[in-house]
Specification:
about 70 residues; alpha+beta; 4 strands
């Protein structure tokens, strides 16, 4: 399921994690040659991906949220 990227944070090992509008988190590593995401290595690159779509496999599996969504 496609979800919007709303923010980023780093995990305990300093890997970048995307925060999605569904309440799930997803690692977005730049790990060539397997995964090429050079944009994740800079603040400008990450800022440019805010609002972009990312496939959320946790939504596909029906998993509970990783973080709380405040009421609108």
């Amino acid at each position: 399921m496609q979800r919007l990227i709303t923010g980023f944070h780093q995990d305990e090992e300093h890997h970048w994690v995307a925060e999605l509008d569904c309440g799930h988190n997803q690692h977005v590593r730049h790990d060539p040659p397997w995964v090429s995401r050079p944009w994740v290595t800079t603040a400008a690159g990450r800022a440019g991906k805010l609002g972009a779509l990312l496939v959320c496999r946790k939504c596909d599996r029906g998993e509970p949220r990783d973080w709380f969504l405040p009421a609108a």
